[in-house]
Amino acid sequence: MNIIGARDTSLDIELDASALEVYGLSPSLVSNAINSAATQSPIGSVEISGNNKMTRVTGNISSLYQLEQVEITTPKGDIVTLAQVAKVKAITESNFNGRLDGKPAIGMILYKAGSANAVEFSSSINKLIQEWHTSLPNIMFKNTYDSADQIKESISGLVREGIIGAVLASLMILIFLRNVRMTLIVLVSIPLSILITLLLMSQLGLTLNTMTLGGIFIAVGRVVDDSIVVIENIYASLEKAQERKESVIALATSQVSMAITSSTLATVGVFAPLALVTGVIGGFFRPFALTIACALLSSLIVALTVIPMLAKLLVLRSKPGKGHHDETKPTKLTTFYEKVLTWSLKNRIKTLLLSLLLLVVSIGGTIPFLSVSFLPSSKPPTTMYFQLKMPYETSFEATDAKTNEIEGVLLNTKDSNGEPVFKFVEALVGYAGKDDERTPYASQIFVQLNDKVDPNKVKDDMKAFILSELPNGSEVQAKSMEGDFGTSSTDFAYTLQGDDQLQLEKAAKLVKEKLSTFPELAEVADNLSDAKTEIEIAVDQKQARAYGLSASQVRDTARVWIQKQKLGDMKFDNIVYTTTVSLDKTDKNTLEKLGNIPLAGPNGSTILLKEVAKINEIKGAASLSREKQQQLVKVTAKINAADKTGVSAKLSKALKEVEMPQGVTPKISGVSSDVNDSFKQLFVAMAAAIFVVYLIMVLAFGNASAPFAILFSLPLAVIGGLLGLAIAREPLTVTSMIGFLMLIGIVVTNAIVLIDRAQQLRHEGYTVRHALIEAGKVRLRPIIMTAGATIMALVPLALGISGEGGLIGKGLGVVVIGGLITSTLLTLVVVPIIYELIESIKNRFGRMFKRNKNKETITTSSLEV
């Protein structure tokens, strides 16, 4: 916690250098005399009237007047009072000045522990503030920035998008089923699945936050899929059954149970490899993946248990064919699909080449033009601050006056509608990020904009205005106050390594000058501390020895005269003061006065400091970071563009032209390296996810050929995902990549449902082609319905209705919707072709093997004859 502007009561005893010189006193002699006179020390206990009593000796000084009359013995044996050699000042002051809207204020900056929940932390503080409003009615408390606000907005946005998505998915199901009862049966799976998911989350120790809520609402469209397949098959079976019995429902459920189980497990299995992803992405998306996995497993349980039970209650006794499609009569869509599938199976090579061409064109036509970034960008925050740094020699009073002047201008700034641009203006004078040290030439101005102005434009305009108002050589940095959900990614960082500090500082200056020429960049800064000047007292060893002194004696004496000595807390006039003894500021504010500090020689003579040392003002060394035993300086910048990696590459190329000082080695990092590292890990996770999905399908189908055909639906999802990003003009981010990872599990669901039915028909004696055509006709409706429900549930996210998705951004919704559209349409054609090709190859090899075996049998028989 940093407190800026709070005033401390202190008792400053300021020594008069000329008076000390007259009486031959030193600061340490005065301090010792005060300590001796004001002593309050216990000396033991005595027994009085049979009781032990603690005994304490005190100097009997209880008032400031008595303190001023403390007698001090000089080296010559004379007696002087403290008032003769010092001024005793009881003052209340602060190292910093705080103001809010031009009125005196105290700023408190609170930091939560890393393990603490930001929203709970914020709620606790706000509760305290409400209590203070009651207990301290004359004091105004204002919350100027709360990092939890962005999290709350993001959560409320996700809830809003989730609810709208659930409503849209429900309407899609109702349009397809055209039956209110069946729609209600399907919709029961949404709240039940969410309830079971919440129970599972509590067991796994997952809390409700942006990532887990995002997982729940993204799964809304997918949790109804299993229920749709089950209820669709139950209804179709009841319509065809001669007698509507419970056994028909049980049989219909068992017909699709393997398909929905394997497809759900495959989707869940997709998220298992996310455990391989390390760093920020792994840490944040793991809860997201676990939540989706819990939701999908919950939906499977509901589909296999609750849905058949509700079907028995609501559908079994209803009249056949009422308010629903007639399974015996093919629809126009089914007839059209049958013609397309029949033609495709007759022209397999043409269809596959056409699909391949579509894949190649979509990849070649989108990837080179896609923007690439690490994380999705959110809307610019309305709270920001300006760090002002004037020339080093600027006094605190001058900084305060100039800051106050700028505050007044900001408070009176109006927008085009005549409304104040800033909701509040807070100033912290003397504050540069360190709560225990005043920086006289620095101040910070915090502001919050109204909702009608462009934050980025205002930030740039105000920065230019403030800089124009400050003296030459001043610096202004404008920074947004934004939460990062625990993630931290520097857009661009240029690290300079070397052994020579001066060369590193020179290189950093060159890099900053070059970066400042790019309009896409903001908040260009380095990690060098401010260049300060310091006083160097260089002792002349020969001269000091001639007077019988050593460098250490000179140092210790100079420290006593220059440094403020703390005497601790003392009580005078019933007030406790933090008491200090120091030389009056006016007696040490020039190099000449410092040179007159008296040193005591061995023979009792007095030598001035300037006689044994040279006193100069020099530039102090800036503090540097170190890495692998090498000094380094890091120059960072924020990129205000969607294509952060593209801008980063442009910056890298431009900085190669900058001639670095000798011995300085540059290294680029930031968003480009973050993207490369994360994308590599996600590609590995995708490869592992495909293997997991294939393994699950092999176990479910009992053979390797059908799952292999199903895998061909995956490249078809890439087409729509990339086209979706290009059309929506969304950058390719880590979130978009998670969308592609999700598609691996979602897309195979349709193919599994289709091929599973084809395999069942083949067991009933159908030929391969006939089984595929019939399976396509039967499964067309549930496939389109499930894909449509998932798409509609994600439409609000893809449109960015709330604009506050955090890490669960528009990119994820766009990728999943686009991928699902193309994969659903192409899967219905391409997967049957691949399946038939594989079966043809298997039959051909089978016939060849059988022929060879027959030949061997004939040969053996002839030999035996």
Task: Kindly describe this structure.
The chain has 865 residues and is an alpha+beta fold. Helix content is 55%, strand content 17%. It is built from 28 helices and 25 strands. The protein has a six-stranded antiparallel beta sheet, with helices on one face. Strands 15, 16, 23, 24 and 25 form a five-stranded antiparallel beta sheet that branches. Strands 7-2-19-18 form a four-stranded mixed beta sheet. A hairpin with a 2-residue loop joins β23 and β24 (630-639). α11 runs antiparallel to α12. The longest helix is centred in the last third of the chain and has 55 residues, at 810-864.
Mean pLDDT: 82
* Oligomeric state as shown: single chain
| DSSP strand content | 15-25%
Gross morphology is: elongated
Total helical elements: 28
Q: What proportion of the residues is helical, as a percent range?
A: 55-70%
**Beta strand count:** 25
Strand order of the largest sheet: 9-8-12-13-11-14
Largest sheet: 6 strands, antiparallel
- Main structural class: alpha+beta
Write a brief structural summary.
The protein is α+β, with helices and mostly antiparallel strands and 865 residues long. It has 28 helices and 25 strands. It starts with a strand and ends with a helix.
Write the layout of secondary structure elements.
Elements: E1 2-4, E2 8-15, H1 17-23, H2 27-37, E3 40-48, E4 51-58, H3 64-68, E5 71-73, E6 79-81, H4 82-85, E7 86-93, E8 97-100, E9 103-104, E10 107-109, H5 118-135, H6 148-177, H7 180-187, H8 189-204, H9 210-218, H10 220-240, H11 246-271, H12 279-314, H13 332-346, H14 348-366, E11 383-389, H15 396-411, E12 422-429, E13 442-449, H16 455-469, E14 475-480, E15 492-498, H17 501-515, E16 521-526, E17 533-539, H18 541-546, H19 551-562, E18 565-572, E19 575-583, H20 591-595, E20 598-600, E21 606-608, H21 609-612, E22 613-619, E23 625-627, E24 630-639, H22 644-656, E25 665-670, H23 671-701, H24 705-710, H25 714-728, H26 734-763, H27 768-799, H28 810-864
Parallel strand pairs: 2-19
Antiparallel strand pairs: 1-10, 2-7, 3-4, 5-6, 8-9, 8-12, 11-13, 11-14, 12-13, 15-24, 15-25, 16-24, 17-22, 18-19, 20-21, 23-24
Helix pairs in contact: 5-6, 6-7, 6-9, 6-10, 6-27, 7-10, 7-12, 8-10, 8-12, 9-12, 10-11, 10-12, 10-27, 11-12, 11-23, 11-26, 13-27, 13-28, 14-25, 14-28, 23-26, 25-26, 25-28, 26-27, 26-28, 27-28
